[in-house]
Amino acid sequence: MSTTDRLDPDGIKCVVWDLDGTLWDDVAVESATDALPTPRPGTLAAIDALAALGVLSSIASRSAPSVLDRLETVPALRERFLAPQVSWQDKSESLRRIAKDLGIAVDALLLVDDSPYERAEVEALLPGVRTLAPEDVPALLAAFEGREVTPESRERVRRYRTEETRRAEGERFLGSREEFLRWCDMRLTVGAATPGEVPRALELAARTHRLNSSGLAPDRLRELAAAEGHEVYTARMTDRFGEYGVIGAALVDRTAPATWSVPLLALSCRVAGRGAAAAFLFRLMRRARERGAEEFRVTLRPTDANLEMRILLRQAGLRRTDDPGAAADAAVLGRSLHDEPPEPPAWLRVTEREDAEA
Description:
By secondary structure, the protein is an alpha/beta fold. It has helices at 41-52, 66-71, 75-78, 91-102, 116-125, 137-143, 151-154, 156-172, 177-184, 198-207, 218-225, 276-290, 307-315; strands at 14-17, 56-62, 85-87, 109-112, 130-132, 186-192, 230-239, 242-253, 259-267, 295-300, 319-321, 331-336, 348-352. Helix 10 packs antiparallel against helix 11 (218-225).
């Protein structure tokens, strides 16, 4: 998609910038000195404005890798970009690597590039990635106007930088993956959402895809959360590197006394592979059992993106069950709570907030 007609801010997690002709006017490898070309002030302002909205920025440039080495010598510029890729590989391959390093879907990227050829190459090989020419950036910023910015959003860029540190430490760690996770000292806190956490829950519902059970629209989530017998639960996580913030949200329907139904379970892709999704789900199941519920149900709308969530629900023992009220495009998965719910991964300490409501 090379036009601005279908820009969906909720679907854009990272804007990837070309260098020559996009971030700056000149060609870096043709510079007579080691100094990089001067970045365009308007482009830097756009990058900073996006960061304030919680949108990440990265680099994909077909150029000599030495350009990235030179970028490392300019901290004020380098710190704006996460997982940058500078090499002679195809731009589409660079985008795949950026998505993998950031732990987000490729379709959550948007490329800004002055070259029609590069944009066409990405559109052909990565059809879900939007592309823009530099002159379309004002339209990109306009698409975000009026959108609610949560405290979690404002901290997103800093937290992804912290994630780069985690990843680097993990690569240097000499033990097993489980030993590294234990060393990280991860702690998950689960409880009823505070008023200040509800906007973040809505944001997770809109922006997460890999670990999202139903894709419930924020407006519908807001409506259900205010309904009698419904409650929003959140999960916060920390480790030795710092705070992740609110990384999980669940809407719980308790209108049927013997059943806890979850129309939406959503978690940040930043915690994929660390056991947080399973731990949050297991803690909700345990709480339901403690409150006298006999069955636990989750609404699932299968998509191409949420295979990870489907696997998690199956591993937790949830199986398809009849529910006349389910939407045509959704399935309801359930399991009995007569048996003790599974325990969270051994490396993750899980507690409940003291102020959580019974």
